[in-house]
Fold these 3 entries.
Entry 1:
Amino acid sequence: MSQKQNPPVFLQRANYRQRRVRDGAKLLPFVGVVLLAIPLAWSSDGPDEKIGSSGLIYIFGVWVLLIVLTAILSSFIRPDVSADATDSSDT
């Protein structure tokens, strides 16, 4: 009494990783907006409610972190070969 087993779904690792890297690159601006908005929620003791030096250091650190993450993600993104093949066949 043998049951037919479906073969496992095979996704090429390179394509799967490329999609996840591209998804991360698309998500990065939203993460950056959230991280840069955090100092606005900090409460300060002064009546004028300024961010202060620690807030500026935090904003600069997030800015540098976003630049580094963008550089890393962009180094992993490869051009889409399938899009190039369809563009050249149209002419």
Entry 2:
Amino acid sequence: MKYAVPTALGFDESGPLVTWRAGDGGRFSESFHEDTLRRYRREGGAEATTSLEALSASPAEPTALIFHVSRCGSTLVSRMLAALPDALAISEAPVLDQILRWPGLADDDQRIALLRGLTGAWRATQADPPARLYVKLDCWHLFHLPLLRRAFPETPMLFLHRDPVEVLVSLMRQPSMTLIRGTVTSEQLGMGEAARDALSREEHAAAILGALFRTACAHRGQLTGLDYADLPEAVLTTAPGRPFTADEQAQMWAAAGRDAKAPEQAFVSDVADKRRAASPSILAAVARWTQPDYRRWTQG
């Protein structure tokens, strides 16, 4: 099947399998990979299933992995990198999450083979294979950093972060899958299930942010930090890959001028609005559950 895109893992009587959907050979233009897959479904792209071995057939290493704490500019970064004519940017692909978390896989060695094969499969979706491949992960994938480092021992890793008060205001306004209890486990939070379940909505979200910063601190030597306050300029000097030409920088700047999640709209900073919207309960939750680890990360 031409330009087939791996979409999901599954299971039938023959064992584990992977589902593929025919693509069009072009760069993924949507802000999130799931939106690209929806477009292919609407356009009637053929679907097929194979054994898992087919996914690990052509391993490759990405140009960079992008970790983040959510609502911190990571989509902006991936949109800027996607604007490069020789680059492919993958943003929060569901099949990658399945490889990391699906209990149907045998062991970490199988996960590593599938992760490496997945990046090779993404390259093969393009009629003009990309010279650079950037992979933005879901925020909770930071907890899987050791496995991802084993899969991609040479790949640079970025870590996007933002003032936790601003992040928490955004998550309270528009909750994400991150906040579903179990997406981040109680073990990853560093507490028992009863303690986790006793947390308020704001406290739970703040505890997740704290755990993310705590994990980043534990792997500081593996991560290159990017602060939301330094975007978009910092992308031009920090993002891995060969130095960006003047034309490439112009294309990236143009992408940065649009809203990352709604590119038809111009970007408007929301920092002041989010600071004003921080309720006493949000401020208290951040002070208790996030601020200590955030300070450890930002102060080194």
Entry 3:
Amino acid sequence: MSTWRKSLKNRLLFVHYTQLYRFSSGEYYSEMCEDLENLKVLDIQIESITCDGLKATLKAIRKVYPEVILQRCVVHVHRMANVWLRQKPKTQASIELKRIVNLLPLIQSHNDRKLFTSRLMDWYKHYESFINEKARNEATGRWWYKHKYLKRTTTLISNALPNLFCYLDNPEIPKSTNGLESFFGHLKDNLSIHRGLSYANRKAFIVWYLHLKNQSRE
């Protein structure tokens, strides 16, 4: 998927149909702010936003819609944590964290959430010094985390945790962006059939695709 289509993917907000789209060369904070402001001008009422946690996206949402419920994509957190912890972790800390992380897709109640956070906090207290171990590069004098992927995973979960379980209070809040991924997967498949189109015609194809999708949902 090209950069401009990735950018489009992060601009498209919809309930039952496309509200707004933009062609862009990247995921820029200024453009995201502008898009959210335009949604306000269109008087579109937003109760919650589910996103994957890109810093620019979070910053834009907090600036333009500070009162809106922000739900972090549970699938994204689960997937990234497993990527960094690897399929077969080598340290005991990573093995135990992977077991805890794999509870995420199963959380359906506040009791599940309490069990998850309790196990996570107990794990962190036990391995805190190990997680934060540093080593020094004698050549450069710089310090770095010895277990950087474990540290990265811990930071990911810690940052996401305050906005990870909003869906438990409101079943209307999507806990993942899977629906959007499916929507764009279908668009990508259709584009691949017409891979010989010029750049301008590819954009025209997307515009018509979105328009016809909206028509079918009315």
